[in-house]
């Protein structure tokens, strides 16, 4: 009996310690030993704007987003879950941002805003599953970067997040089934990106909403052994990127290849969406 109690206590301590470590990892407080650099060759932001509806009026949300871009002196911003405007109404958005970003490209649910030329912006279908992602070539002609802009399949927790909560066993079972199915789709999407991402001569950056935590298989597939996580390498402060679910999880990332160097990373707190903007500063090697 005593042996069983000791083993039980050890298990409880290990679980508690593991949970403490994990949530500290997810929030990523003070990972870097040095203060992140905010100026470099290229400063890139990425955010899921959730249809520009988080702040109520779209004009207000756009104004907050533009201020965040100016305050952080961004060179490139990749926006996921961009609103599918009615035909012809992109012009208002472009007019708002064009004074700061002279180059703007909108393809389906992805908008790319840049101070430097956007040489390519294509939507590519995932291999073997539904959905698409953006392949973006932007930056100075002599040294552009390839940005893979992603918004991987949602988790399926919309039953909870829509405000009415889970209503009985039927909702719970449906949510579990949807979460398992969507997780399989995200894994397939991640594998698809890995198969195609290095068919380019430029440095590669994968940026966006993975809908997956750092311990997930999706994150491990995308990161592999040849990409680095900008926030873990050079970030400081609170690393959680999703405001809901008690604001403790990190599901948005910026991964990059070793032919560029990340010298600074941060998570902005401007209220543009239920996601926070990831900002990373890169130097060319």
Description:
This protein is of the alpha+beta class. It has helices at residues 2-27, 58-71, 90-97, 158-161, 168-196, 217-223, 230-234; strands at 42-48, 76-80, 103-107, 110-114, 118-125, 132-138, 145-151, 204-209, 227-229, 252-257, 260-267, 278-284. β5 and β6 form a beta hairpin. It starts with a helix and ends with a strand. Residues 159-164 have low confidence and may be disordered.
How are the strands of the largest sheet arranged? 3-4-2-1-12-11
Instruction: Count the E strands.
Output: 12
What series of H and E elements makes up the topology? HEHEHEEEEEHHEHEHEEE
Q: Radius of gyration, rounded? A: 20 Å
Which oligomeric form is depicted?
A: single chain
Give the biggest sheet. 6 strands, mixed
Taken from the alpha-carbon principal axes, the silhouette is globular
* Terminal Cα span: 61 Å
Enumerate the spans where pLDDT stays under 50 for 5 or more consecutive residues: 159-164
Mean pLDDT metric = 84
Determine the number of helices (DSSP H or I, runs of at least 4 residues): 7
Q: Which structural category fits the helices and strands?
A: alpha+beta
